[in-house]
Amino acid sequence: MDEKKVVSFEKKHSKPSNEKNNEIEYCSFCKRPNTQVPKMVKGPGVNICSECTLIAVQYLILQDGLMSAEAQRILDLLWGVNRK
Length: 84
What we know:
84 residues; alpha+beta; 2 helices; 29% helix
């Protein structure tokens, strides 16, 4: 299965037929190219790799030292944890 390494959240525009699909994109935070990270999310004028995303999520959730119930619910959904 050929899975895309760069996911774009930019508005879709028709691309010229000669534009390359395998362009190198760089993380705006760590500056690594998409060839050196598991995944990359591309936004309007900014990119973030999956590793920097995880660091940001950890910081935002744990900055107060306690995880809110809502944050825990979202993480459980993301990781597929079934709590009863």
